[in-house]
Amino acid sequence: MASLAIDFGGTQVKFGLIDQDGVVLCASKVDSSANETIAFNLELISRKIRELMASNAINEGNVTSIGIALPSIINSKENIVLSEYVKYTDANTFDFNRWALEEWSVPVILENDARAALVGEWKFGAGKEYANIVLLTLGTGVGSAVLIEGKLFRGTHFIGGNLAGHIAVNISGAPCNCGFVGCLETEASSWALPSIVERLGVKSDIDALALPSLNFFHLFSAADQGNAAAKKVIDHCIKTWAMAAVNVTHMYDPEVIIVSGGIMQRSDDILPLMQDHIDTYSWLSPGSVTVLPAQQVEYAGLLGMSFLSHSIQTT
Ligand SMILES: [Zn+2]
Question: Residues 106-119: pLDDT tens digits?
Fold first, then answer.
């Protein structure tokens, strides 16, 4: 008995077969064909997973459910994509239930990718001991999800806990890609770095570094080599994430905040200030909330979707 888990990201799609105990039986990933339809992508992934299963001598009859994570707002009761995400453009009109029954003869469950990653960390990673968790994913944008008393918080319209990246932190901030102003993402995410660099007055210094692209890894390595402009940008972003940690503490009162994303390779540079801000500025006594790095770096989303899809068979 295994779940077929699929995690659609902005640039890659991960997929794998996972048993009820969270053991990854086989897994792989492909570059996403994000300009193609979701049907095209699912057909491609179905073919790849069948090849993967054949090479691991796993019979198709072992697949008893499917879990799909998408970078979108998801009505997980009816398996409908609510947001018109720029990638996989027809996902919001696609009938996932019908696809799963026709293609694999099993039920499917859909969930937002940050919620999937949170469940993966809760059941199999850094959140195992806890029932009240906020997950923040730092990177291209800022993703988030919330677990309250052992249940995923989804809210009235399914956006509950998902939009920490669009909490305003600067009344005089830059316009966000969501239409709001001064969102957390406009102050501290890699898509906004060109604008952040300009607003901090260090554009010419950063341009002079001739960085291959403006991302946090290049900025961190420039800062390591003593570049003051790169350090200024990084310090600004870390302070903003630390402010966000206080905000989500006040909103959701978690036991832990788990921080994920490729940038956690530099967790020692980022997490201490987030912890310090919570201890200093939240209404709680120091040590009440702990900031932790994610543990399931590669498979949190797949493990989370596997857990959720296994659980639909028992409800
Ligand atoms: Zn926004």
Answer: 999 999 999 999 99
